[in-house]
């Protein structure tokens, strides 16, 4: 099957010319080591100092360009410093449009709301109110959990194995990662994990039998939850893809059992899996949806909490936050919607690019049948699960050496995770896949540390 | 005492010319009412649609200008769209500097870290590591609480009456406001409130006697906390000002009792009370400090968690967040530090302006001795506490009608709260104080609703 | 197979002669209705006023005798007012032996400890220390959970579906019943239910696959528990019998996963299933065991918490209780051990009687193949699960009318539960089974209410 | 003032003759050391093996008699093995009265309920329903807390500094002792301690000013509690005596603030302070009262939870327990009420004896003005607070050597605590006080360890 690339989608433009070394460049980036907290992470795997970026290319202060297959952990679906969005942002700043707006009404917010309504909600028949809960994903998750608990007057939330929803105390309690949970410093309570689709021991034909039995049985010990929160594709969890029928089953279960269904679409929304929302393909309408990362389109902090109109029982100011009205982000978000979501060109292109990635990864898997356990993905979110946990990390390090940025995920960091910009060109995709194949090959040859 | 205005501090510039009505302007800003959640707050008290801003003036879509005595709840200490910072931001964007950087090392981050070290930490002898915990204040508080609990292996945190620290579950548990606490939907635990300086019943000469007795007494029932978290001036709590000797007493108590002292300087830091940190005046060095709001200087989401080097026991990635590397904010933050914190000119000017505000408020109080309970403040954070709770709200509404933006705070919203930009001109300050006096006068004449 | 009844076990003696009506007897037992709290339960299903009892017979104040198939919910394994134990108790009281002993050393406690060591622990090779945690089952469970959490420094406890462990806050958190949990008035946390043996959806051949996957997976969201607490036969849960291989699997799992195994033998211990401890048959040695109900043998409040010697890290007085030294109970407990546990006669007899019950219940099931779902049991703990939930309750009410005391259990009260005294005569067993058959027959004929 | 000893109160009878050494007596009471858990406490301070007891005398297995000033921590208000109660108990046992009754209606329970109504509740005009929550004090506290939370639909409970309410998880959360709290193994939450009457820093003239300000202030951070739980005299806390006006203030506060008042009268009820309930003197009527310890009168496990009729919203069986129908305890409780509470003779005698104790303790204090900080008490609950913490423990050990049993209490075990039987003779009281004076003298001479 071939699909002509939809011409009207603005793609990545050429990378910027190499920059002259920055004034502070020297042999040792010492201030990061001496002053920044040990909690820093990505800078350890990618040991250079980045300076500029455009499209799918980052350039470090020495002028070396890197092909970006990580896209800000899914926050840069339209590439770095997308030219169309940049123009809109510069216009706004130049004319002294509101920058910081708390939750005042502004022209920029109105344009975003109208555009979101006209291009996203209405065409999909989604009956949502829009809340600006603070500009990060974890803010949106906190707001979603609060609202679900308030609506149902019950504290319990069901999450799923290997879920990731954020690092503030409410969101962390529905996150699976043991090391991150331990960081809470207090026991994380009022939550219960259930098996995600395909989790070991789950019967694929009747995946909710155990969960529903627990809910139906007044002696099970599982207090009736207010809601279940789920990702359609678990990004941090290792690119675990829920089948559409599993998501429908979960939505039906929640309705039968008087629980709200929260879809956390922070990483997989905004077109990452094809459609604007990752749950569209399954044909479900969650009660609450969290959106962040790529919603501003430009990497600016912004998030949304969407919910059915009848759930909008908030008191004014019951949840707030200083930066919930980040107007520059509204401007780029509006521009991104007009540019990429006025029709289905990007959605189709994403699926096409996804096929390209899938083919490339299957070739890698075929080359190493012993070492590669699985290739999984939807849209442009893909993972290559290695049998030996360390192999994925070694491959990512080799990739960096070759000028390709990829990350690992999964409970044992055993999955090489690919989140390229949706606007990446087929040629860049091919180049990245070639570099990845090479990196995996080297990683598997490398003696174990 | 007279002090010449320090010439080198870039002040507010003239407001932008009136904008033509926006394309979507109409009689009813309906999309806010029909699509935005009921949780929206400030837009209710200030019923217009803002379009542009500069310095201390916001302009709505009909071209009406408002004098801003709220400054983004303290996020715009250098005024809206400060021209110096704007130039730095535009440069960064135009040259495709990194926008979204996770916690990768970038040239923009390096410049910020070096500048923060050289202009803020070193001159004050502060021994802090710098953590970027996610770009909002509540992220910083969550990180601070996690770290304190991890360091001390104890879950308890002491907070103070009428504290406000944020809306995610961890921060909300140390926030006093009952309505906001109820929004959590789960009991908020592991925290204990103690009386803030001057709280009813606290003995001013021995303010920590009861608290310390509870800590010393193994039968008190107060489990030993990991830390105390405090604001030096409680903004949301009603501009309650802690005396320097009270803060020193608290710092001494924490040291004696093996507890960490966390100062939440999100609203009162970045020069709001005069010095860069609000605790400098008391001569204390907290173990952990949270900074946000005005740190970027331009209203862009950014926050810091600072802590003594020996507390930096984080594992890499143990706390993270998608937008913790908001590079445009690093750029404006760096420019703001160079512009305003290379010397003590702004600090001196802030104290001077504060005297001007104080005089104006005392005049209002003198005019209404029955109605005004107290005038309180430090630097450019001031509050006028009204005897009758509704009077403050009525005054704020009248002020809006007169073109002045002020807010209320305090447990009963009984305090008119002033947070003008630090860069405001004496003339604008005078105009605002005059409008406020007029608004208070009208509010007190108004029949009770 | 036939087994001669072991002659040396003192059995039930003849019921006492009918009592003259008590002085306060009248038409309406009004003080129960007017003064006792609505929380009262059993008195509602058995609407009479009991006066005396011996062996398996209770006699009400009108002289009517009831055959007891409930035995104080398993607290009267040797029958009511067992003559041998009674003699020992009277002797103790008459000679002014210590009655209330806190946890002082007493001669009665020493005799109990030595006897328990010599007749129970040593013959079974059980390496336990003995703790007197307060005289009720829930006290013992609270102590067991405290100790497990202290030993492992982890708060989490895994319990099983339809478990019952008690009504104080710690024990209630590991109890499954939703109505009882709701009574807590606070969310019950730090616990996670897992499927008991045979629970719907559990793979009988690999019953711990899901549980262990959750434990092995650092991303599962299940924080590593300190312990699992289990009943070998769930009494309140509906006489759910764990297979020996399931219990062995659980014990192995706990060892592999660094969790303690707590067996709550409060209802099923003291010979109820045959051996002194119900877990003996499976060949496991739990880390902690709770014992109560029939340990005194006479229905006097008493409980034990047993644990491996190396777990005995309690500080003196770290758990205490006013009535933990109930010396009259030590006296009857000692007498019961000498009378019934010096050899294996009772154990053999219990299995024999169990066969008799099983045959009787299978006959009832065969008579009503549509109405009876299952007959389950071990030793002298048996249950008849009815398809229609109300049928079990109607059968129990009919039984009362016929002079037989039986109760229901299970999450929907759908199981008729039989816990006759271990000392019951074959003739009484037959009579009871005949009355039960008749009651079930009538209950199934009865029109639905 | 002199009051003739009321002749009709059965007092202590002569101690039983010395017993022959028990069969198991030997040089080392090894089974306690080898088999009983390290958690054992009292046996360490009183290193002998007790065998028999009568009135205020315990006799060890070597025939040595000890004068008991501890009375089972207040469980033996009528002395050991009180002859009148013993006769009633023997009668019940001999005629095979019900021993174990769950919560079935029995003739023994009816007699107790009627007697309690006629001799305790009605004469005092107390509008209470009676609940049997399980036979220990902690069971009663758990039930009280559950009910308060259910009635008010709020989780919070306020307790007081140095409170002791029990060791199960619910009761432990309102207990002050840090070591016992740490034993919980989980954070104890939903509770907040407030200063007890006279606590350091509390203004005696306005003791609830701070507490009520916290309740009235919607920004205080203290979530509105369901109830406050208080002891009128804190026994474990160090014989801290609340003034009647303080108790009245607390009762008024609770009513104004829509909180329930729970008086835990487990140790101080049943006549310990004079009246049957310790709160009678203050003229208050708590919403909920817990009673245990001396309610059976014979040291048998029994407890009550009393509450206003309108609070009786329990569902049947919502709280239960195997031993809540301990019928032998009902029998002795009934006999105790008839013997001691048919008139006010015991109450008067207790006050008289209390004066005797007070005089004796003041003499000790006068002898050691440097060493004794305070003498406190009501009725027959008294404490001598030593300046040096270890002195109280040394005095108790010396007392044991002299044949007197006294215990210590208070957060630092700095208080010698006296709880003699209410039935003790003046001569025995004198003897004990003399031995105590001698012990204190020796303890203060002893070099510090």
TrEMBL record, chains A, B, C, D:
GO terms for molecular function: diaminobutyrate-2-oxoglutarate transaminase activity; diaminobutyrate-pyruvate transaminase activity; pyridoxal phosphate binding. Residues 1-29 are annotated as: Disordered. It holds the Pfam family Aminotran_3. The keyword Transferase applies. Residues 13-26 have a biased composition (Pro residues). Its cofactor is pyridoxal 5'-phosphate. The keyword Transferase applies. Pathway: Amine and polyamine biosynthesis; ectoine biosynthesis; L-ectoine from L-aspartate 4-semialdehyde: step 1/3. InterPro entries: Aminotrans_3 (IPR005814), Aminotrans_3_PPA_site (IPR049704), Dat (IPR004637), Ectoine_EctB (IPR012773), PyrdxlP-dep_Trfase (IPR015424), PyrdxlP-dep_Trfase_major (IPR015421), PyrdxlP-dep_Trfase_small (IPR015422). Signal peptide: none annotated. It is an enzyme of class 2 (transferase). It comes from the Bacteria. Keywords: Aminotransferase, Pyridoxal phosphate, Transferase. GO terms for biological process: ectoine biosynthetic process. Its EC number is 2.6.1.76. Belongs to the class-III pyridoxal-phosphate-dependent aminotransferase family. This is Diaminobutyrate--2-oxoglutarate transaminase. It comes from Streptomyces montanisoli. The lineage of its organism: Bacteria, Bacillati, Actinomycetota, Actinomycetes, Kitasatosporales. The gene is ectB.
């Amino acid at each position: 099957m071939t699909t002509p690339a939809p011409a009207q989608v603005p793609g990545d433009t050429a990378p910027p010319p190499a920059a002259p070394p920055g004034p502070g460049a020297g042999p040792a980036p010492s201030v990061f080591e001496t002053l920044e907290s040990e909690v820093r992470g990505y800078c350890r795997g990618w040991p250079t100092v980045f300076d500029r970026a455009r499209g799918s290319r980052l350039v470090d202060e020495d002028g070396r360009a890197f092909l970006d297959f990580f896209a800000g952990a899914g926050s840069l679906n339209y590439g770095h410093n997308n030219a169309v969005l940049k123009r809109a942002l510069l216009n706004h700043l130049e004319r002294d449009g509101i920058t910081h707006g708390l939750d005042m009404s502004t022209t920029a917010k109105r344009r975003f709301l109208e555009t979101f309504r006209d291009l996203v909600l209405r065409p999909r028949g989604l009956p949502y109110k829009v809340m600006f809960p603070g500009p990060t994903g974890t803010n949106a998750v906190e707001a979603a959990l609060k609202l679900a608990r308030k609506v149902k007057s019950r504290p319990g939330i069901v999450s799923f194995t290997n879920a990731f929803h954020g690092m503030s105390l409410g969101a962390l309690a529905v996150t699976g990662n043991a090391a991150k949970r331990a960081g809470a410093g207090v026991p994380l309570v009022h939550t219960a994990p259930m098996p995600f689709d395909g989790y070991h021991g789950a019967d694929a034909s009747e995946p909710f039998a155990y969960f529903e039995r627990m809910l139906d049985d007044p002696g099970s010990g599982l207090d009736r939850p207010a809601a279940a929160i789920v990702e359609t594709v678990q990004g941090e969890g290792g690119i675990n893809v829920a089948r559409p029928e599993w998501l429908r089953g979960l939505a039906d279960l929640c309705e039968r059992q008087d629980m709200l269904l929260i879809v956390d679409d922070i990483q997989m929304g905004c077109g990452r899996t094809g459609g604007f929302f990752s749950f569209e393909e399954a044909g479900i309408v969650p009660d609450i949806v969290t959106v962040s990362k790529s919603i501003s389109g430009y990497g600016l902090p912004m998030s949304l909490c969407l919910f059915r109109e009848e759930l909008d029982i908030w008191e004014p100011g019951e949840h707030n936050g200083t930066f919930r009205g980040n107007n520059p982000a509204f401007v780029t978000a509006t521009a991104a919607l007009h540019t990429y979501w006025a029709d289905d060109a990007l959605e189709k292109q994403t699926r096409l690019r996804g096929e390209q990635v899938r083919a490339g990864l299957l070739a890698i898997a075929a080359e190493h049948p012993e070492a590669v356990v699985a290739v999984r993905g939807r849209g442009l979110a893909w993972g290559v699960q290695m049998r030996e946990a360390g192999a994925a990390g070694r491959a990512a390090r080799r990739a960096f050496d070759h000028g390709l940025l990829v990350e690992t995920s999964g409970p044992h960091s055993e999955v090489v995770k690919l989140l390229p910009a949706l606007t990446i060109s087929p040629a860049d995709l091919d180049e990245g896949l070639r570099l990845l194949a090479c990196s995996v090959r080297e990683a598997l040859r490398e003696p174990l540390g």
